[in-house]
Design a protein that fits this description.
Blueprint: H1 2-11, H2 34-45, H3 49-68, E1 73-75, E2 79-86, E3 89-92, E4 99-102, E5 105-112, H4 114-120
Antiparallel strand pairs: 1-2, 2-5, 3-4
Helix pairs in contact: 2-3
Length: 121
């Protein structure tokens, strides 16, 4: 019995430590949120953070309201925000195998400008 366990333990490979999920961001990468953008605006124009947040809110609200109407928003050097219509389709629940009907919907779409693509390269 001991010999069997000894041979079995020689075959077992140690597990690799958990490195995180595939979608996790590396620890050294930073992301910019709305607050950080407002701070950058306030620093650049010399106003207060509250004024910068209000200006940013106006820009975001304008983009959202225009997209709600089904129109495009084009910002030179950044890209084009638009609305895309997705057709109704059938999907399958992977757990139960049940077929579901997914209704047609509108989804936001962004197409980056050449200047943005070149800047990121």
């Amino acid at each position: 019995m001991v010999a069997i366990l000894a041979r079995a333990s020689n075959c077992i490979q140690p597990r690799m430590p958990y490195k995180g999920r595939l979608n996790d961001k590396p620890a050294n990468k930073k992301s910019m949120n709305k607050q950080a953008i407002a701070e950058a605006i306030a620093e650049k124009i010399g106003g207060t953070k509250v004024q910068a947040e209000q200006a940013l809110d106006v820009v975001v609200d304008s983009i959202v309201n225009t997209l709600k109407k089904g129109e495009e928003v084009s910002i030179a050097g950044i890209g084009i925000f638009s609305v895309k219509q997705r057709a109704a389709r059938q999907a399958r629940n992977p757990r139960t195998g049940e077929t579901l009907q997914v209704p047609a919907m509108k989804v936001p779409k962004f197409r980056a400008a050449k200047a943005l693509k070149d800047a990121v390269k």
